[in-house]
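Incident review: delayed structure delivery

Summary: a single-chain prediction request sat in the queue longer than the usual turnaround. Root cause was a stuck worker, restarted by the on-call engineer. No data loss occurred. The affected request and its eventual output are reproduced below so the record is complete for anyone auditing the incident later.

Affected input:
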Amino acid sequence: MAVAVLKSPLGGEYHGKQSERKPAGRRRVFVQTDTGSVLGIELERGDNAHTVKRKLQLALHVPTEESSLTFGDLILKNDLSAVRNDVALRLTKNVMHRSSSMPCLSPTGRDLQHRDRSGPIEILCCAEKCSKTKQLVKEAIVAIKNGIDPIPANGGLGGAYYFRNPKGERVAIVKPTDEEPFAPNNPKGFVGKALGQPGLKRSVRVGETGMREVAAYLLDYDNFANVPPTVLVKATHSVFCINEGVDSNRIQNRRQVSKIASFQQFIPHDFDAGDYGTSSFPVSAVHRIGILDIRILNTDRHAGNLLVKKLDNVGRFGQVELIPIDHGMCLPEDLEDPYFEWLHWPQASIPFSDDELKYIERLDPIKDAELLKAELPMFREACLRVLILCTIFLKEAAAFGLSLSEIGGMMSREFHGMEEEPSELELVCVEARRLVDEESLSDEVDEEEEEEDGSENDLEQFQFHIDCEEDFSQTKQSKVNYRNETRIGSFSVPSLNIGFKHFPPSSFVSPKGGSRRSPLSKLDESPEEDEMEAEVEESATVSGQKSAVHKLSTSFKCIGITGKHQRHGGVRGDCSSSGMNRRSAEEQVQAGASFVKLSDMSSQEWGAFLRKFKGLLNDAFANRKDMSMNQRHRLGTSCQF
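Output delivered after worker restart:
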């Protein structure tokens, strides 16, 4: 489990002092297996994926057959030129074969442990942007060398450790990626999956929450939302958990093990948001945290990860500061249902300030994605698309005049009984995807029609020959012997039974007028729903895109996802149980699944999708505004803040 940095393809030692001056052209990478084992490797010029896997096999005694070396979305075949210095790679099994007699393999050779001369903590990514964290790392290293060990944290579902400075004060919270919930070395019994498999959220993989913690800090420009400094590190210590047997929890039997982990500055605080009255929270602090949560589609913003720090130390309800932590469930690979604790707080209904609007206006989603790709190159493309989409949504909604509460409400799904309905954001995405698919189909049809026009011209030419042959045959009866091969002008027609079976009449019927199914692949539609969809498309043609979004929401209601007509200001359609096959979302959409996928689009389709998406937003915002006005009218002025 410990890191051993190898100098030669087949072995050797690496001493920590040499890492400060790497030979030109060399890079160091940290490779993690799907069971949590970590190996630091000094890459030679001629190294490729095969030699890296060979080093893993020799050093860690793990099988590498039927395994791939991955770097985010990229599967490394031979060329390692895309891999930069000090990044984390992963060895992933192509096919999972594990019997009851074959436990997870973890390195147990003590000869490997004493060869590790690297430092106890090494920053893997974002070192240039985390100068404050560098100082914390130095303090933690000095403390460890002085015998001040990290302290395990009791809360949460995953493994976490407080690292201290030489004075014994807590300076950082460290969360190993292989101790996350469901990960192989989770210390609290929540195990059962390998790194890279779906975790607590289906679109957030086990072992990938640490880099999301770092991403939230990188995206919090100018410390706008007050996210504590965070980096990704390789940390080595005996306090970490290794699930190898019943004796593994005994300190005296523990050995030095290395983990890839998030390293976040520890912030002393007095409460969390669940222990403190929310009415005393500053409006600006709630807005700033909410703006970040919307950009990164935070699916886990609960009261426990909003720390409260008193600023005046006078009484319980004085001035306070909010510190957002635990961003491991942000930036999922698909549109998930977010959870915003602040959604119904009164502060969220107050309009954005001018400074907040200027901050939102300056946000550039493309540059945000490029930043994450540069600093955290293992980030998956699907996550970056979610970031881009949600940032565009935030910018357009704020410019339209929506409040934080209204924007968060449009992103959140609702439950009615046991039925889940898509959010308004997802409905817009579904409609945008449908428009892109229709446009793509139209282009394909145009190409087919061009080919068919050419075929029809050929058929007309053949028909011309046939007509001429018939006239010629009639003339031939009154004349003496003609050749069997007849010539018309310069064209020779040796045989007139061309065989029109190659050109069936149906092949010339244009499908342009045919109906298209909704691209919502997760939902199976009944024949009655097809009729509903036809009515939706007909109405969209007459009423435009605004009607299309509304009608689409009505069609969802009629397949068991009820109530969306109220959110869009529509009229309840006739969806009685007679003749209507009602099915709940639980039956059609897996828990945590997305109603529309962003990851399966090509680059060209993604660009077209964003254009359609932006074009539909103003109508969706207008519907939300109308609904908010109606609610205020029913509730009266007593609920205005």
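Verification: The first strand starts at residue 14 and ends at 15.
Action items: add queue-age alerting; document worker restart procedure.
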